[in-house]
Amino acid sequence: MELSARGSDQAAADWFWQNAPGLGQMPASGALGLVALAAWGVLLVTRGAWRRAVAGLGLLASLGLAAVWVIGALTLRDDVSAAVTRAELAPGWSLGWTSWFVMAGIAVVLLVPAHVVALLRVPRWPAMGSRYDAPTGAPRPGAESSAAAAAVPVADLGEEDPADVWKAIDEGRDPTERVDP
Fold first, then answer.
1. Lowest-confidence range among 33-37, 86-90, 97-101, 139-143?
2. Secondary structure element (H or E) that encloses residue 13, with its range
3. Under a CB-based contact definition with an 8 Å cutoff, are residues 155 and 168 in contact?
4. Average pLDDT for the chain
5. How many CB atoms lie within 10 A of CB 96?
6. Are 71 and 59 in contact (CB under 8 A)?
7. CA angle at residue 87 from 69 to 12, to 5 degrees?
8. What is the spatial distance between Cα 44 and Cα 49, in angstroms, rounded to a whole number?
């Protein structure tokens, strides 16, 4: 909500917002919006049942966000108006929706169907390649299965300066390879 007043009454309107903490704010909307956004990032890196569960969580968060937005649209103006009246501000103030509230409504209208589509189609989406997974000791499908390939020694970098390691990587050299003198 935006509270505006004419002339010197704007100072009174500013005082009101500073002394009415939480009024006109919907903290649940921020939290639910972050959960819905984070769900999209997690959908990209998970597989199987976890991916479907995260899609469902994202849908629940976006439906909760829609509910918070609708409740705010129905009750927020009256709540702020009643609080301004109780604060006995000078007449001539007006309430209006900020562009952020309108954009949040547009985002909810786009977010809910996007999560519905994700929940329905997520089993058919390709999974992120296993090449980015941490090694588990088990050979990857299609990888060499010989004992020599499985027993590759890892070089100990010891006291080497980390900056030198990064320089070697930048130059295209393997910093774990040791050059025998």
1. 139-143
2. helix 9-19
3. no
4. 77
5. 11
6. no
7. 90
8. 13
Name the residue among 62, 3, 71 with its Cα closest to residue 34: 62
Q: What is the pLDDT of residue 119?
A: 93
Residue with token string 């939480």: 22
Check: CB of residue 5 under 8 Å from CB of residue 13.
yes
Using only C-alpha atoms, the chain has a radius of gyration, in whole angstroms, of: 28
> Who wins on pLDDT, 19 or 24?
19
Decide if 3 contacts 90 (C-beta within 8 A).
Answer: no
Q: Residues near 140 by Cβ (< 8 Å), separated by ≥ 6?
A: 130, 131
Closest CA to 42 of 103, 125, 137: 125
Beta-ladder partners of 96: 2
For 112-159, the pLDDT digits (tens) are: 999 999 999 998 888 776 666 666 666 656 555 554 444 545 555 566
Look at residue 20 in the predicted model and tell me its pLDDT. 63
Distance CA 57, CA 113 (A): 14
Question: DSSP of 81-148, one letter per residue?
Answer: HHHHHHTTPPS--EEE--HHHHHHHHHHHHHHHHHHHHHHHGGGSPPPPGGGSPP-SSPPTTS--SHH
- Tokens 């006109």, residue? 24
